Amino acid sequence: MSFTDVLKKSFPFISAAASLGGPVGTIAASLVGKALGVDRVPATSDGISNAIATAFADPAQRAALIQAEQQFQAQMAELGYKDAEALAATAESDRASARQREIQVRDWMPRLLGTGIVSGFIVAVFLILSGHAKADSVLAGTLVGYLSAKSELVLSYYFGSSSGSDRKTELLAQAPPIPK
User: Which residue of 47, 48, 49, 85 shows the fewest CB atoms closer than 10 Å?
Assistant: First the structure.
């Protein structure tokens, strides 16, 4: 059993929110950070998992995490999510509706914006790294980081995200060994 499996069984709502991301992931990250007494936990699946893994060995922090899970479960119940599977299904239905929209509308704007963002990222990185553009290192880092994040979103939109890869890894880990 991997740590991801332990995380999903021990903290199902926090785990589902972490994989969902967005505002729900931010709420989960905030609750985990508050429970652990940490200022900031990255609102990503890896960030939340790493924070929980670090604190898992300490009984006091583990108890605080369990309390945070229960509090988060109560908040999600108020919003209409009776279990973690219902919360995870939200992400699936969101992806399905976005795909259906693309099939029906055939809008050029997402392609145009995506091409502009990825092209802007490539040009900005080239200009900054080649020395053609002079920018303060903090400003350059901020711009490249922002464009990198937006390019990642565009690529995830068109080519899929790692959520399918996570599921594939989970299924392979549970598969019986291949006989020799």
Answer: 85
Distance CA 69, CA 102 (A): 36
Distance of CA 168 to the CA centre of its chain: 17
Q: What is the mean pLDDT of residues 43-63?
A: 75
Backbone phi and psi for residue 172, each to the nearest 5 degrees, phi listed first: -65, -35
Residue 87 in contact with residue 17, Cβ under 8 Å?
yes
Instruction: Identify which of 180, 142, 177, 173 has the alpha carbon closest to the alpha carbon of residue 8.
Output: 173
pLDDT in tens, 135-144: 677 777 787 7
Indicate the length of the chain as a whole number: 180
Indicate the angle between helix axes 12-20 and 59-78, nearest 10 degrees: 70
Give the domain ranges of the chain: 3-85, 105-174
